[in-house]
Amino acid sequence: MAASDKAVPAGEQASSYWKAGVDIADAKAPAGPIEKKWQTRQFEAKLVNPANRRKLTVLIVGTGLAGGAAAATLGEAGYNVHTFCYQDSPRRAHSIAAQGGINAAKNYRNDNDSVYRLFYDTVKGGDYRARETNVYRLAEVSAKIIDQCVAQGVPFAREYGGLLDNRSFGGVQVQRTFYARGQTGQQLLIGAYQALERQVEAGTVHMHTRHEMVELIIVDGRARGIVTRNMVTGAVEPWLGDAVVLATGGYGNVFFLSTNAVGCNNTAAWRAHRKGAYFGNPCYTQIHPTCIPVHGETQSKLTLMSESLRNDGRIWVPKKAEDCAKDPRQIPEEDRDYYLERIYPAFGNLVPRDIASRQAKNMCDEGRGVGPAVAEKGPDGQIRHVRRGVYLDFAEVIGRLGKATVASRYGNLFDMYAQITGENPYETPMRIYPAVHYTMGGLWVDYDLMSSIPGLYVTGEANFSDHGANRLGASALMQGLSDGYFVLPNTVNDYLAAGPFSKIGPDTPAVAEAVDAAKGRIAKLLTIQGQRSVDSIHKELGQIMWEYCGMERTEQGLITAIGKIRALREEFWSNVKVTGKNDDFNQALERAGRLADFIDLGELMCVDALHRRESCGGHFRAESQTEDGEALRHDDEFCYVAAWEFGGDGGQPILHKEPLRYESIELKQRSYK
Amino acid sequence: MKITLRIWRQADREAVGGLQTYQLDNVSEDMSFLELLDMLNEQLTAQDLEPVAFDNDCREGICGMCGVVVNGAPHGRYDSSVPTTTCQLHMRSFQDGAVIDVEPWKAGPFPIIKDLVVDRSAFDHIIQAGGYISVNTGAAPEAHSTPAPKRQADRAFDNATCVGCGACVAACPNGSAMLFTAAKVTHLAMLPQGQPERMRRIKAMVAAHDEAGFGGCTNIGECASVCPKQIPLASIGQLNRDLIASLFKGDGK
Predict the structure, then answer these.
(1) Whole-model pTM?
(2) Residues A394, A528 within the same domain
(3) Interface of B with A in 181-200 (CB under 8 A)
(4) pLDDT of residue A672
(5) Quick one: CATH architecture of B120-247?
């Protein structure tokens, strides 16, 4: 089959879940050849005189790579910056957990790398669903990120000559990934954090930790402020300024279990969405095949193991379900099913992430999973116990190369695995299972990173722009820092040049209304006093999302999921129990507010997945596959960004399409055979 | 497993706190210590009691947000066979029937916010004083213009792995944050980019450390023994050498 084959038409019921809106365009990317666009935009953007910058206030929510870097840079430029984060310090942001590395087109290896090649790889990796102009700029500024980080004292891995080391990552054929052992995210975040703290000392940045954004303030059509809840005292208060930046990360925790930090949430973005910011491609999530499996019902989060393990480990499950509880070392070779090697003889254990993930789920659904049997609610509503894990076996490579060589390659990962599971992976096969890792979708932004609300900017994982339907390894850190250090600080001035905007205060009607709305919502959460804990409802939402909007989606499944989510929303607002009061440090209240927004987002994700009747990147629609079970894109119908407008509580979301135009790159169907 | 927890409960900064005892059944040895607290909180919520407040975020040992004193040792160092953060401490480290004491970090500069949650903003203040290299965005030279010898770069990295959890302070009989301060000082002192501000940095950071109310270091070494990232005591030696050198040099060197 070819990519141009028509997609299966949507059923009548499916298309009743959304309304069609008008197409949109990214109006800010200038005309001209792609390699000149960013330069042109920087030249055409209006500037703010250095003497006027301190009169302009920028509010930045989230202080990870994208927010911390932007705050530091705008502070250096002389703007009056306020930052907000839910953690006790910006150094905690979940950017810190990224292991692998950061890509940059330095071509230090003299291996034919270039800005164009990084751009090309990223667009192709995104399965041709990213915006070309943004991705080119990302590749263009990537080299400067490395310069900046080195100057800040980020201790990247070096060679004996004192120069930076590189490795190849994520299946690309050049060595362009810079790394700091398995802790690259940590080191880059600490660099941005230090730059931010320097500006705090300089008095340009005012840092507000343990403050959670609970509402966006719009005055005269412009984003002018936010409402926060002080997580120590419970005070709900407005903060006003000339522009608002959301750098609040991804929404993987809609699945309850993910590799995100437990506090990661989508409330800031969702509050903005409700006030008019379009949400781009919400169904694009990345599921990573090599995570440590769930141990039981009390599991609170999942931990990623580097994908490099698949280079040497062999993945298998028992052929017979009755062997699944046995010690794997007692299962003879002929009773093992090395299913990836069997189904995909050419690529074997190195098939792409989505395929490795989907097949692991299939094996466990068949009843051939391994590890502890964990209770879950099936589609029929019955509780069943399923083993969710497959073996990743290193016995063959240890036999071939010796334990010492394997330890030198994967020692830290084996130690981490042993610490979490209590099992020794040198002796017994690892158990792995896919987990939600990254969300490519996010608030829609234009070339300047401005959302559909004037004055509201969105950076990093929180926006949708650079990764299309699938993110390549080592490109999340690159995007966060590109947006934070180089893009936003050179585009926000175009908007701020018209400021300072009209004087507003706590008594301005729109401000008072936003504060009252936030307070009313908190009061409502505290008065329900039902029977169910916040976490029990969140886990149920996670199971619905994982079952129907996870690795494989179908029209019928998504319709079922939407029905279940609506019922769960009723359950939440009538039967949740939030202990304690507002004027206190109240973690149950924090979680309840976040979950309420996750429930609404979950429904939108299902609607987006329902409307996209093609498979692309991390989104696999069962109705759109080749005869061999490969993902099948439909470029003629779906080569666009789905930007969703909030349709009101209980209303249908409105779909605006931003057509994707590929002028520099030719569209191709992915093939791994 | 059956576990008895004796947890420090304190309503707010000014309140008088105390240990309260809770019983948990059906604890799995695969659970992390924080999942045990989650389980307790679900139980308390079902009983209409207020859950225990505790800080945590990444739950994979890297963000530094979590940290409690378990059986008298930060991050449960006496119970765990390897250095770890609290989130990577697992219940298989404990015996069935164990009685476990859980307390917050106890140090003057870390006031208690509620139950097991403390205010560690004093750490941010130490970094603000000089824990950085002054380079504005866009002003950086080409990354390869200054090679950094691998041995020193590796030592910089080892010190840069500090997660800022505060276990070193909680373990120190003097309530000193010298290991935290030394980790940052050593990280930046080992790199060529860190040299221009090296002397100014150390004076400013040590002054901020003292001003925050942290105690002096008397080389006891409890800090390094509980450090989840194994920042070595030798880093404090590096700090002391640099501090003495700085006394003979002007701010700009």
Answers:
(1) 0.97
(2) no
(3) 187-188, 191, 193-194
(4) 59
(5) Orthogonal Bundle (1.10)
